[in-house]
Amino acid sequence: MAKVKKQPRPKALPPKGFRDYFGSEVTERKHMLDQIAAVYHRYGFEALESPAVETVEALGKFLPDVDRPNEGVFAWQDEDDSWMALRYDLTAPLARVYAQHRNDLPTPYRRYAMGPVWRNEKPGPGRYRQFYQCDADTVGTASVAADAEICAMLSDTLEHVGIPRGDYVVRVNNRKVLNGVLEAMGLPEEAGVRDDVLRTIDKFDKVGEEGVRQLLTKGRLDASGAYIDGVGLSEDQAEPVIAFLTSKAADAAKTFENLRGAVGTSRIGAEGIAELEQIGDLLAAGGYGAERIEIDPSVVRGLGYYTGPVFEAELTFEIFDEKGRKRQFGSVSGGGRYDDLVKRFTGQPVPATGVSIGVDRLLAALREKGRIRSTATGPVVVTVMDKARMADYQAMVAELRNAGIRAEVYLGNPKNFGNQLKYADMRRSPVAIIQGGDEAERGVVQVKDLVLGAKIAESATLEEWKAQPAQTEVPLGDMVAEVRRILAGSEG
Amino acid sequence: MAKVKKQPRPKALPPKGFRDYFGSEVTERKHMLDQIAAVYHRYGFEALESPAVETVEALGKFLPDVDRPNEGVFAWQDEDDSWMALRYDLTAPLARVYAQHRNDLPTPYRRYAMGPVWRNEKPGPGRYRQFYQCDADTVGTASVAADAEICAMLSDTLEHVGIPRGDYVVRVNNRKVLNGVLEAMGLPEEAGVRDDVLRTIDKFDKVGEEGVRQLLTKGRLDASGAYIDGVGLSEDQAEPVIAFLTSKAADAAKTFENLRGAVGTSRIGAEGIAELEQIGDLLAAGGYGAERIEIDPSVVRGLGYYTGPVFEAELTFEIFDEKGRKRQFGSVSGGGRYDDLVKRFTGQPVPATGVSIGVDRLLAALREKGRIRSTATGPVVVTVMDKARMADYQAMVAELRNAGIRAEVYLGNPKNFGNQLKYADMRRSPVAIIQGGDEAERGVVQVKDLVLGAKIAESATLEEWKAQPAQTEVPLGDMVAEVRRILAGSEG
């Protein structure tokens, strides 16, 4: 190692697009992940933790003939010049893990995984380059019972973390039905026009029925005044796509009838509809009605990526967005069937289906609804009146902890007692313990109820203030009991 | 993006030195981290999660004038050519976080952090390039009460995760005492000979008292027959170092007397001894006797890095190593005071002290002692006798899950029933549910106790086998109760 040169001070900042999480931000997310894992576990899914780093060839999507892998991931070269990268999701690593260990894993293999993933993208407000995902997948079965199970589990999970029934809906669609529609339209399988139609369908959420119709045919003037070229289909050709997207009816039987109209005689289309019917039957048998999980052909997210059923969980309650407008909270989870992912490694197709929950969005939703269990209460603070008697204070704090009470001794400079109370305030401490020389001689401590004290300070007269009902003197032997009494009261 | 070329199949392997963790490997570690976090929280420490990625300048130890940062970390360049790297520990990020947010954080700031860290080192057997650390640090106080608190917390943590008192000891030393020894020896502060002495002391664990004496003076023939040059001190000069390393006596008072002899009139040495005495007093006041935490000047690990008190937790029970030799399990945690880390950013010294637990080693120790709570029981498996009746099986599994029982329906190819039982075996399922057409007509299910069944299969006669006491037929309405009865029995 060469000699270190005198350097300017480093900047105390994380890299652009990364951030720190403090205290309850960490524990609230952890609590939610624990709750999700409990449901996944109950469904028979097993935990898997793969490394944050994978080879670029295992992650896929990369080019061997360029000097540096393309954007989207953080990648670098190992000593032997092979490229490695931070995982960008939890699905690509699962494909690698399953291909590697398939002889030692049960078939089907149900696994869940949770942890950070990294995207080398331009960060923006609320968009970070490291964020959490929480996935569950079933690998090795083509049965739509696996898809139905994932939907049921997603519904149970949302309710378990605190989204009440009625505030969410899991919507199910099927890529095969869309394939049937494309077949019914007579579009050639390989032609670029199929991709154009898929891309157009992706805009359904934004532009609606009439917008899609225009984009599929002659084109459309968008909100900015720009003219967007159309795909160039005739109105007749576009009709099955519109019929597909708008096929959702009040009851499932009618929806399926509409879909049958949209796919015509297409075999793959009929197969897709049969799968949706089966999923509906299985869910009904498990007690999951349409108020929780519904067949909805207007779900277009992921139709380009998945090969069979696709699912999306939406929160249906309204919030105010940053501009003060009311809108639905929207999607917190998506997934579907992807039958080709493991094939990259093994050459053999391995059917798989799964779901990913956007943990940070779900947390935001729960905060929005005021449904996060507060873990923000600070520790009891044992103040330091006499530095030389630190051992006594240490003994007090040990006694509190041994009684299971979160507690700490003040370790800053004890000279200014006001600073100690300011510290307790910053720590959201519910109680402070005070023992000066006089109290020590008499074998007592002052137990100060800081929550009550703050309330009094807001509104008390001088007389009330002097009466100090928020502070009680008790024998040292009663300290734990008195603290417990105050803590029990402040929780109520 | 350029056109993707036809590529050979990717290898289904993680990068060298990385590995996957399955099922109970994940949940057992998680359970231990939860237990550790509970103790840290009780001590008033707050969670912090900083990103996996930091700028290379914030991590430190790097050179601006070489093309690629030196080995030891995984580093790469961002779009703007600045270097970023995966964190190699949790302390360097803490220094950055504290420097950045110090105006919004309480003083002192107690924080804990747990998560993976990455080292770009040559992997070896049992040595991975990603592993977990679990740290607690107190930033912003020079008080040795903070060091004593860390030691007490470490002792409580080890007992809380399942290491009984007597099977571990936390040892405490102080770099300042060693500085006093070096002063007493008359070694110049800046000279390279100090570093030579520090490096020699680091070998005390391996070569012992006589080995250190030889290495400090004229040199030593090592086990391989090679001659190791000595530092070149006289026997008299080496004596204070030996006195320091061997100063531990049966009681602390005698140890301190020995240390006073070793540091002579050195002011810094006297300060270091006073600190150790204070730590001992504070711990005694908290009820932490020498059987849990002891002052031990023979602890040399980290003396080169830390600036004040250093601590190490050792497990004292014996295990058999890979060669079948008995040895003590050894160190699972270390820490100490490092007063210069934040200064890199702010220019102002910020005192800090902390500890890091080697989570994987501690887990290995608990497994070695058979103290890991097994989480390996699989789900109840509802078998599939008739594919067309999947909705019925789905309803059964939903009923089990709603009763809080971990359960799944068999989703593989149901043709061969033997395969379904093999699957249940691989999943360590305690119970299988069986319902063929005949049972369905009669409204009953077969509930098969797989644990008892396996026992019988091992030792049963043909008659016993036929009697099949491990399988019971019950009305469908009693399924949950019967499963509960079996699960309660198999836990006992």
From TrEMBL, chains A, B:
Catalytic EC class: ligase
Documented EC number(s): 6.1.1.21
One GO MF term attached to the UniProt entry: histidine-tRNA ligase activity
Annotated localization: Cytoplasm
SUPFAM superfamilies: Class II aaRS ABD-related, Class II aaRS and biotin synthetases
Major site of localization recorded for this protein: cytoplasm
Subunit structure: Homodimer.
Sequence similarity: Belongs to the class-II aminoacyl-tRNA synthetase family.
Protein name (Swiss-Prot/TrEMBL): Histidine--tRNA ligase
Annotated source species: Pseudoruegeria aquimaris
Gene name as annotated: hisS
